[in-house]
Amino acid sequence: MSEKIVVGLDGSGSGARAVDYAKKLGALIGSCELILVYVVEWSPFSFQTPEENAERHKRRQEEIKQAMDRVVTPAVDGLKKEGFETRGVVRHGDVADTLERVAVEEKAVQIVVARASDTGFASRIFGSSTANLVMNASVPVTVVS
Amino acid sequence: MKRLFPLALSGLALSATPLAAQEAKTIDATVNEAFAAVTGPFVSLIFAPIPGTSFPWIVMWLVIAASIFTIYFGFVQFKAFGHSIALVKGDYSDPDDAGEVSHFQALATALSGTVGLGNIAGVAVAVGIGGPGATFWMILAGLLGMASKFTECTLGVKYRNEYPDGTVSGGPMYYMSKGFAEKGTPGGKILAVVFSIFCILGALGGGNMFQANQAHQQIAGIVGDYPGWITGLLFAGVVFAVIVGGIKSIARVTEKVVPFMGVLYVGTALIILLVNFDKIGWAFGQIIDGAFTGAGVAGGMVGALIQGFKRAAFSNEAGVGSAAIAHSAVRTKEPITEGFVSLLEPFIDTVVICTMTALVITISGMLMIDPASGDYILNGSSIQTVGDVSGVSLTSAAFATGFSWFPYVLVIAVILFAFSTMISWSYYGLKAWTYLFGEGKTTELIFKIIFCVFVVIGAAASLGPVIDFSDAAIFAMAVVNISALYVLMPIVKAELQSYTSRLKSGEIKKFTGH
């Protein structure tokens, strides 16, 4: 039975670094599937206008398609060309919670993410997604610098 | 030259002012008279008192309907209260549906359309006329109204239209036409058309002109009197940017600030109540005593009851059908869950926020009491207040006894509440408009532009009959909506029974995460 590694993508250079590291891990493990996860940041407790609510389903579909087309599919295709067993997933939610949930659902042995590039006031107060993931995940997490 | 030009202009303005004012007055008066002549009978019919009383039959219509729904659904508002909160918290939300409209979002959106002047000015009017006893009847009407919201919002989700592009349209007009057809009952489409017409008028009036007008009054109260059309143009510009220009950042800021203002309002009220802790027992005594004896107010117990019921109905809109439009955007497999969530709306709006306002006014000592008899001093039909204030000014003065800076916050709150109510009603009106004239960019744009024009008219004019008519139109929505709810309530009951049994059997369970 092949092992599974969940890799966090964010469409930037840090996501690509996480994929590079996961490739090395995958090669070492041998039979290993890399699950590339892109999380669209979303909170069920945000406030919206009635019109935004009415269009929310449509927007969600568009967000998923955009993330798939621009970030996930190119990364998955690249890995497949290199001979890796891989697939991509796009989910909405809190980044740390969602990566952890996908890892638990998939029975992954590890989550690989790159150090977050987010700085600023909010991340200082609430912590970055990476820090939250490291503190709360029930699955081993590797943070690539 | 630069200095002379404005001087010359002001001179021109000075000489022209009396004539212009006279002309404006004439136009204003002419419009008022013509409009009143046409709409007067309709307004009188909607707000007519029950013969032999001063109780408007429309308020009785809303309260009786709420009582019937309460009994018919086995006091669902009390039995399902805990489950409603669990739904809002997201305990029963499938994580795979993340990114869709959540129950919390639908509730918050609907609340931003109802929390507003009714909670601030309306309650002051109720307590000012009906005495503290009106609060008891207001709370009772709020609790009963929860069942009306439950009924209409369940149907709103169940019979909404879902379009191929993923957008949705829902509300009473859809459950009237589709629900009646499903039951084989005739007349659904006619009711839907009538409802839509009233909804458009209500949206342009109570949901727009009245709000713009009150916002202007508040701003003018702070900065001094100035022409209303300036406020109107400013508001219309912002509303236009949001609903036509799709500038979501403005809407997002408002949608974030409005709940904050709501929390600040309740928080301040709580602090005032805590500081006056020793008077809370006395205040509740006044409320209970006043509710059943009507001691010291004009009209006695019935006067208190009328005011309490009336202001609760005006504030939470339960049975009007507007909330069914707002709640129908939720994508749920179980329409009844949105009914459960919506019943929290009258609770928050009326039972919590309105009660806070009423308690602060009672405790503040703004209502003058005759030290000899212990009764309230009457000034005509209302209670004499310190400084002879009423409406928003009474609430403002009452809060100022605790925090002198609060009137300024209240002005901002009233303006923001007015704005968010306008945004919500622009959507309700739009849905009724597209129901009548069809979905499409051009059709929608026409309504949105009309809506913005009415913002300016509302702020600029003090067209009493127009406001009366638009209020009447909102309550006429309730006549049509509740008639439909009586026909369709067995469908809601079947949904309720099915859901409750599956919840008990464990078929519907919480998503615990992992």
TrEMBL record, chain A:
One short Pfam name that applies is: Usp
Where is the UspA domain positioned along the sequence? Answer: 1-144
Concerning CDD domains, the annotation shows: USP-like (cd00293)
Gene3D superfamilies in the cross-refs? HUPs (3.40.50.620)
Kindly give the PANTHER family that the UniProt entry links to this protein.
STRESS RESPONSE PROTEIN NHAX (PTHR46268), UNIVERSAL STRESS PROTEIN UP12 (PTHR46268:SF6)
Q: Which family does it belong to?
A: Belongs to the universal stress protein A family.
Q: What is this protein called?
A: Nucleotide-binding universal stress protein, UspA family
Species this protein is from = Aliiruegeria lutimaris
High-level lineage: Bacteria, Pseudomonadati, Pseudomonadota, Alphaproteobacteria, Rhodobacterales
UniProtKB/TrEMBL annotation, chain B:
In the UniProt record, the signal sequence range is 1-21
Question: Which InterPro entries does the protein's record reference?
Answer: Na/Ala_symport
Keywords of this protein's UniProt record, alphabetized?
Cell inner membrane, Cell membrane, Membrane, Signal, Symport, Transmembrane, Transmembrane helix, Transport
Main localization, broad class: membrane
- List the membrane topology term(s): Multi-pass membrane protein
| Single GO term (MF) | amino acid:sodium symporter activity
- Give me the segments passing through the membrane: 57-75, 120-140, 186-206, 226-245, 257-277, 283-306, 347-369, 405-425, 445-467, 473-492
Q: Where in the cell is it found?
A: Cell inner membrane; Cell membrane
- Specify whether Electron transport is a keyword of the entry: no
Which NCBIfam families does the record associate with it?
agcS
Q: Which family is annotated?
A: Belongs to the alanine or glycine:cation symporter (AGCS) (TC 2.A.25) family.
Q: Protein name, please?
A: Alanine or glycine:cation symporter, AGCS family
What organism is the protein native to? Aliiruegeria lutimaris
